[in-house]
Design a protein that fits this description.
single chain; alpha/beta; Arginase, Chain A; 9-stranded mixed beta sheet; 11 helices
Length: 312
């Protein structure tokens, strides 16, 4: 069940005769309508635990909210906070899968109301929930996934799904439904993905660019590559794993990057993607781990990325 976050999260600076900051603009579900920006939190550590990563991502959503609170709100649509999907770890009852299904159903309802969901993680297992929501809302659409990430997250689901498997789950779901698996990963760390993952990515037709290639190519060329991919699909799902950024900029993740991609490069790509507002149907942020953050650097970056994407 979605649970409201604490009121203390949405507090921040106020200015005389002005009310244009996120904490002043945020509405509760009782005030909801249509054509909104809707925030969801996925308080999940279970996928990271299964993937043998550093725990703490379950606390990420509310910390991102706190960093958003004082930013200037200049999006073209009102914003509401749907609250958090939160659950206790239980290997027996499959609570992670229940949480993913619950979030997916809520996302689907919002998309069907012409709302734009922004999902705050949590481990990258949130991607399976995001995709379920999109696919339920658009069962026959050609869905394209753009993932800014140091990892493919295409691991085999045996013995069980984790934060390293969501896009493999999506690929298998597409195969079962005889639908194309349209997946583009930008920021791949060649030293952090096994040969088996590269082999599977090639066999599944995955598009990818390494962190080094992204740093050496002109941004206009990167945008051109994205444009070709976006032109080939009907709906676009954008996912940002915070471990795609350098560790000194984003230390608060499960797997910090020794190299990573400059945030300014990704922000320029996000600026291009947001021009495709008729196609882009969801944004999620994954792997926010406050336990390892320094001075809220990673949370502040996550908040700024959201701000850049939804603002006019």
């Amino acid at each position: 069940m979605l649970k409201a976050c604490k009121d203390s999260v949405w507090q921040g600076r106020t200015d005389p005769d002005e009310s244009n900051r996120w904490h002043q603009q945020i509405k509760q579900p009782a005030d909801a309508g249509k054509s909104l920006i809707t925030l969801f939190g996925f308080c999940s550590d279970e996928g990271v635990r299964r993937n043998q990563g550093r725990l703490g991502a379950q606390f990420g959503p509310d910390v991102i909210r706190a960093m958003l609170a004082s930013l200037i709100y200049c999006a073209p649509r009102p914003v509401i906070d749907r609250g958090n999907v939160r659950y206790e770890h239980d290997e027996v009852d499959g609570s992670l899968e229940q949480g993913q299904a619950e979030l997916g159903a809520a996302i689907s309802r919002d998309i069907s109301q012409n709302n734009f969901p922004v999902v705050l993680g949590g481990g990258h297992e949130v991607a399976w929930a995001s995709y379920q929501g999109i696919r339920k809302a658009y069962p026959d659409a050609r869905v394209g996934i753009i993932n800014f990430d140091a990892h493919f997250d295409l691991r085999c689901c045996d013995p069980q799904p984790s934060s390293g498997t969501p896009f493999r789950q999506i690929a298998e779901d597409c195969k079962k439904k005889n639908q194309a698996f349209n997946y583009y990963v930008m920021g791949i760390n060649k030293a952090g993905n096994s040969p088996a993952l590269f082999s599977y990515a090639k066999s599944a037709g995955v598009h990818w660019l390494s962190d080094i290639n992204m740093g050496l190519q002109p941004v206009n060329r990167l945008i051109g590559e994205l444009q070709g991919f976006c032109d080939s699909v009907d709906k676009i799902y954008v996912s940002i794993c915070l471990d795609v950024f350098p560790a000194h900029i984003a230390p608060g993740v499960s797997a910090p990057a020794s190299l990573g991609v400059d945030p300014l490069i990704i922000i320029q790509l996000l600026h291009y993607l947001k021009t495709l507002h008729s196609k882009v149907v969801l944004l999620d942020i994954a792997e926010m781990n406050p336990k390892y953050d320094i001075d809220n650097r990673t949370a502040r970056l996550a908040a700024r990325l959201i701000h850049e994407f939804v603002s006019v």
